[in-house]
Design goal:
By secondary structure, this protein is mainly beta. It folds into two domains: about 110 residues, YVTN repeat-like/Quinoprotein amine dehydrogenase (Methylamine Dehydrogenase, Chain H, 7 Propeller); about 90 residues, Thrombin, subunit H (Beta Barrel). The strands form four sheets. A four-stranded antiparallel β-sheet has the order 1-2-3-4, with no helix packed on it. It has a four-stranded antiparallel β-sheet with strand order 5-6-7-8, with no helix packed on it. The N terminus is likely disordered.
Length: about 210
């Protein structure tokens, strides 16, 4: 039985032609939705399901454009590339892959030796599309796509990571929300080039979305 999920998107600031109308989307997955992500231009959305499929949607019409089949695992997180016609997928096996939207082909995947045995809490693409931020539960990594290697890791820090994303129009700085070993909620901006960390006072308010 198809799972029918309706949600209201007020996207007047993102999609000009939506004009504050309620948009109804029929998510034609056969099982529950695990993740939804919007494109930077506000025109498209990707939805992933535990049925091991990903669907591409046109937001202005609610029309399903493509379905990506043949995934080996359930998708935890997905993200569009800012400019090119690709998206990145983080699986519940901690694998990370880049998929081409037009051809549906696998473009690249993170080397197996770099995969952590932790849940992926978020993934993000740098503005120049040369780096991928992978946020695991206890570690953040920067995957250099040109060298296919890990350029940065904060492994070893006692953190329970809630979310992490690149700063807008940044290629080397990201913001991370986490809880420390004392269960205190924290927010930091990390510069991966200089290794400088800027702490932001949030008065112990837990932030799960960035």
């Amino acid at each position: 039985m198809r799972v029918l999920i309706y949600f209201t998107l007020l996207l007047s600031t993102i999609i000009a032609n939506a004009q504050n109308q309620d948009l109804n989307f029929s998510f034609g997955h056969t099982k529950n939705i695990s993740c939804v992500r919007f494109s930077n231009d506000g025109k498209f959305a990707l939805s992933a399901s535990i049925d091991k499929t990903i669907k591409l949607w046109e937001l202005a019409t609610g029309k399903e454009i493509k379905t990506f089949y043949g995934l080996n695992s359930v998708v935890n997180k997905i993200a569009f590339f800012p400019k090119s016609n690709q998206f990145i997928v983080g699986f519940n096996t901690s694998e990370v892959q880049i998929i081409d939207i037009e051809s549906k082909n696998l473009i690249k995947k993170l080397d197996a030796s770099e995969i952590e045995t932790q849940q992926i809490v978020n993934i993000d693409v740098a503005e120049n599309e040369k780096s991928i931020l992978i946020a695991y539960m206890n570690e953040c990594k920067i995957w250099n796509l040109e060298t296919n290697s890990i350029d940065f890791s904060n492994k070893g820090t006692e953190k329970f990571i809630l979310n992490a994303r690149f700063l807008p129009q940044s290629n080397s700085k990201f913001i991370v929300s986490f809880k420390n070993s004392k269960n205190e909620a924290k927010l930091e901006i990390v510069d991966t080039k200089s290794n400088l960390i800027e702490s932001i006072n949030i008065e112990n308010q837990t932030i799960t979305n960035l």
